[in-house]
Amino acid sequence: MINFNWKIYKFTSSSRARTGFLTTPHGKVNTPAFIFCATKGALKTLPTNDKVNTYTQIILSNTYHLMLQPGGEIISKHKGLHNFMNWQGPILTDSGGFQIFSLGHGSVADEIKGRHFNNNKNKSLLEVSEKGALFKSYIDGSKQLLTPEKSISIQRQVGADIILVFDECTPYHVDKDYTFSSMERSHRWSIRSLNAFNDDKEFPSQTGSAGKQALYGIIQGGAYKDLRKISIDFNMNNNFFGLAIGGSLGSSKEQMNDIVQYTASKLGTHHPIHLLGIGEPVDIWNFVRWGVDTFDCVNPTRIARHGTALVRNKLDKINIKNSKYRDDFNKLDKLCNCNTCINYSRSYLHHLFKIDEILGLQLLTSHNVHYMNSMMEFIRDAINNDSLDQAQNSWFLN
Amino acid sequence: MINFNWKIYKFTSSSRARTGFLTTPHGKVNTPAFIFCATKGALKTLPTNDKVNTYTQIILSNTYHLMLQPGGEIISKHKGLHNFMNWQGPILTDSGGFQIFSLGHGSVADEIKGRHFNNNKNKSLLEVSEKGALFKSYIDGSKQLLTPEKSISIQRQVGADIILVFDECTPYHVDKDYTFSSMERSHRWSIRSLNAFNDDKEFPSQTGSAGKQALYGIIQGGAYKDLRKISIDFNMNNNFFGLAIGGSLGSSKEQMNDIVQYTASKLGTHHPIHLLGIGEPVDIWNFVRWGVDTFDCVNPTRIARHGTALVRNKLDKINIKNSKYRDDFNKLDKLCNCNTCINYSRSYLHHLFKIDEILGLQLLTSHNVHYMNSMMEFIRDAINNDSLDQAQNSWFLN
Question: Both A199 and A280 in a single domain?
């Protein structure tokens, strides 16, 4: 595991919160960190060289989407995703498992958080078998088989720094038996992913110039602690560089908090810990306390495109489309010094959404990315100063 | 006319082409220059502080659109459009006349260039009378009367540096009698605009903090030289800071060239000359030779949003959506050093359009703006070096 390193810098006295450094071939990530979604190889609305404005450390792309468009071959010809999208910082790719789940069962975010089950979704997932998952491509309708070996192979072509084992992201609405057998299969897929990852000879064309990767295992078990325990033991006993907490986290904030606490607090300090699909500011403040090091979620950028700006107050957001902002000459967030807040008023941003101007989506996205990065820096400072509780009150202006 | 100045720097030996400096309270414009459209108070997809990337000197907004949304009052409360949209360079506003035309007769660009007449357009223009033009608002259906006095009043509220008299932009498909009577009415409206402009007492709340303006007259007469002559005389005999060439320019490139040549060559050197609605690169090279100093058109930014990039070759554009760019690893334009060309391949830009990613629109818009500004600089250098013909061949790689 040349070029990779995980080092914890400081712990807090009253929680498992810690700061650390996650070193990759494309740079060091100060943790806790938020990972922004560039699902299809683009940070939606943000040119990658806007990094300086927003202090983004690391981004995430989706294997399944990239495999369908532009395809691994095009990315490989660019010598990897970093060059293709001109992002020279660290990248994480998911394994495609998240998409199996999404396409098979409905909204990913809703399922992780147990919000509802929508039966009417178009199901592009044709079959999940021991071999892998058979999809219908949403691009051209062609049948696509994604296996652990194929997922690792594509992730090597894409060349992300951190890659994930191929798993089924078990939804909330299934029963314990299904969750158990899905977990067991994901464990077998994990071993196949690990073998594929370690066996360079099988992927001669995908290694080398696209750079080296580190592999994360994924902890399954849904909202069942006894299953989580089995998955924790499985993952701790295999040679993964990092560990991700995947699958359903239950149907309520309390249950989610309980499951994350239970799982994360058993994972020790030898691995960087990633929590998949969680991005609400208040959740992040809570979950760093259980030792989560990195988070990802489409939320901060997606809500921006619907007019919602993250701001430092008790509710932590405002919707700029609300008519009360028509003649509000203040900046979006009075404590923010991002490009958007320095240069534009709420009234102007309201106007941009009123006229359906793309620039509005860009300016709010840029602000939300800046907000998340500032918050993570605030959290890191608070951990280093052992003042997390006071810092949280101060962040939300309580 | 404090803060404003127009000075010609150099002429060429074999044409009327000239370079000059158009000084405004928000800075100096090196001419010939291209004016980019920020129709509704936004350079579509471009944050205004991207100026450094694209060398944009001056932008244009539309009185009619701004009057309906957000309304002059909101802009006035921001102390003018410069602050509202955070653009501290020079701004020109049209008078609303362009929109009367557009809403009454169909596509503006098609009409100026005589391409066709579309009878099926939704007509929001209710009535044109001596008093002004009665519209139905496309925002809320309310009836709106735009008069010369109201147009000037709103343009003062908006606070652009260069403002235009209120005119009817006469279309191509109407007959000579209509063109003549429309021109005569536009002349009467011009006098009313000039009076309103000079009579600060009538607009006490709109002057002052929003800054000083300079007024341009508009030369009408459609594709009829005898009418153009009348309008030239009218405009030259009134106290306008600058002159714009408006109305229809005929139904063919030859006729357009003929009318622009006839009109521009009679306008002397005392005024900066603006040509309304023309933005094809090759047309600009031709029309600077007749003494046109500034141009505006939505074209460079609009075509970008449809995947068309301006490039330096004989055809002067490519459509990045064409499948041949899927695995084209070159930059968009091999001679360009804009942010897009430095950082992204044609293959990546093709991918962005393939996945309908907003970032694609941004990157192509930014490139096209850079292209136009680079071309105008190339033209200015060529005029100063008296080598316009060679420069044109060199620009299009002939």
Answer: yes
pLDDT for the residue numbered B296? 97
**Same domain, yes or no: A121 and A208:** yes
Which of B297, B317, B341 is at the close of a domain? Answer: B297
The domain boundary, picked from B265, B297, B329, lies at B297
At residue B181, the pLDDT reads 95
Asked if residue A198 belongs to a domain, the reply is yes
Name which of A288, A298, A283, A257 is nearest A108 in CA terms.
Answer: A298
Q: What is the pLDDT of residue B206?
A: 34
Q: What ipTM does the predicted assembly reach? A: 0.91
Residues of A catalogued as catalytic: 94, 296
Q: Touching check for A306 and chain B: CB below 8 Å? A: no
Tens of pLDDT along B328-338?
A: 999 999 999 99
Tell me if A69 and B352 make a contact (CB, 8 A cut-off): no
- Tell me which chain B residue has its CA closest to the CA of residue A354: B69
Domain extent at residue B343? 300-398
Domains contained in chain A, number = 2
Between positions 25 and 84 of B, the ones with CB within 8 A of A are: 40-49, 69-70, 74, 77-78, 84
Containing H/E element for A107? none
The CATH number covering residue A26 comes to: 3.20.20.105
Q: Strand, helix or coil at B389?
A: helix
Kindly list the residues from chain B whose CB atom is less than 8 angstroms away from the CB atom of residue A84: 345, 347-348, 351
Residue A377 clears pLDDT 80, i.e. is over it? yes
Lookup result for tokens 């090597």:
A156
Residue among A336, A394, A45 at smallest CA distance from A346: A336
What tokens were used for A243? 């560990």
Whether the pLDDT of residue A257 is over 60: the answer is yes
Same domain? A67 vs A201? yes
Distance CA B214, CA B197 (A): 9
Domain shared by B291 and B318, yes or no: no
The total of other beta-carbon atoms located within 10 Å of residue A365's CB is 26
Tell me how far apart the alpha carbons of residues A162 and A226 are, in angstroms, rounded to a whole number.
28
Bridge-based pairing state of the strands B33-37 and B294-296: parallel
- So what's the pLDDT on residue B1? 41
Q: Give the C-alpha separation, B101 to A104, whole Å.
A: 53
Say which range, A1-15, A255-269, B262-276, has the weakest mean pLDDT. Answer: A1-15
pLDDT value, residue A209: 30
- Do B352 and B283 lie in one domain? The reply is no
Summary mean pLDDT of chain B: 89
**Residue A189 shares a structural domain with residue A101:** yes
Please pick, among B167, B293, B296, B333, the residue that the annotation labels catalytic. Answer: B296
- Whether A239 is in a domain gets the answer yes
